[in-house]
Design a protein that fits this description.
Keywords: Glycoprotein, Membrane, Transmembrane, Transmembrane helix. By secondary structure, the chain is α+β, with helices and mostly antiparallel strands. The protein has four helices and four strands. It has a domain of about 110 residues: 2-Layer Sandwich (Murine Class I Major Histocompatibility Complex, H2-DB, Chain A, domain 1).
Length: about 170
């Protein structure tokens, strides 16, 4: 069984992953490691950033964001935890960079939401007005074709002339 990483990682971390894979009680020859990160939001604000590592779909390590240390969720992941805890500066830097990226994404989404409403209103309102105008013109032609009355009769009845004075 040959174990090779898919991404570039430090040799000590690679050794810890290989050791974990070899000591893991499994008949599976292929081992999959997944590194997850998530932003917890409340409204449009980043509340917390979570990070964890899975092996073959099971959580084995999680990062405590308050101490920036890894917690083992599987007894055989202790060596992997120790290796990751040695690189605390890198862990802190990565977590902060990810937290900033989450905040930036939320800002972009907020800006997109607020501008898209105005764009939709600015486009749809005139379009709807033009459609209604042409609809009314079409409706007046249809009514005038089916009616025997003069098409201007309604308009003419609206215009009132002043009463004539006979005093003069």
């Amino acid at each position: 069984m040959e174990l090779r990483p898919v991404i570039n990682i430090s040799s000590s971390l690679q050794d810890a992953l290989i050791f974990f894979a070899k000591t893991f009680n499994s008949t599976v020859e292929d081992h999959t490691y997944q590194h997850f990160r998530e932003c917890k939001l409340k409204g449009y604000q980043v509340v917390r950033v979570n990070e964890w590592i899975q092996h073959n779909g099971k959580d084995i390590l999680s990062l405590d964001p308050s101490t920036d240390t890894w917690s083992t969720l599987h007894p055989q992941a202790v060596l992997l935890k120790q290796e990751l805890d040695r690189e605390t500066e890198l862990t802190v830097r990565d977590r902060l960079r990810f937290q900033e990226a989450c905040a930036e994404l939320v800002k972009k989404l907020c800006h997109t939401d607020s501008t898209s409403g105005w764009v939709m209103t600015g486009v749809l309102a005139p379009l709807l007005a033009v459609l209604i105008f042409f609809g009314l013109i079409l409706l007046s032609f249809i009514i005038s074709k089916h009616s025997s009355a003069h098409p201007g009769a309604v308009l003419g009845s609206i215009v009132h002339y002043p009463a004539q004075n006979s005093d003069g």
